[in-house]
Amino acid sequence: MADSDPAPHPPEHHAPTQHPTPAPVVTLHGGDLAWRPVSPALARVRLIVLAALLVPPTLAALVIGVLVTRWALLGLVAVAVAGLWGAWLVGRQVGAISWVELDEEIVIRKGRLFRSLVSVPYGRLQYVDIQSGPLARAHGIASCEIHTASPESGGSIPGLPVDEAEALRTRLSARGEAQRAGL
User: Fold this and answer.
1) Other beta carbons within 10 Å of 96
2) What is the largest CA-CA distance in the chain?
């Protein structure tokens, strides 16, 4: 007598499905990306500019305090408080600037209280500009300006070491050309 149950089938083997790796998540808080900070020399340059801006009010308060009234010497206290607050603010601002190069875009993050996150796709790049004034050059840093067709969609990374800024400009220009050519 024949068995009415069909013969058991061997288990089917399916090829494992490969899920594409998810794109990195870009957030104002950082996420898991390898954010690159700007050079600490940027803080030094900004502190020098702050000190230069505080010299005239300091001299004015000192001269008026000596020649006119001693009460003007209280202006020195105000200048000192403004200088300390400005120095603290510069340190916080520079520490909040970072950037990361992703596969399809460069992302620039700035700010602590008022945060901004600028994402520039490589295909939208028109040109990349490097700028360095005399004080920045003396400290070995430059600013990298990223230009697109729309002025609102560009970005800038201040305080990069000059060699790094030049290398970044070269990489971004090459990636922009490759994206526009459809490669």
Assistant:
1) 16
2) 126
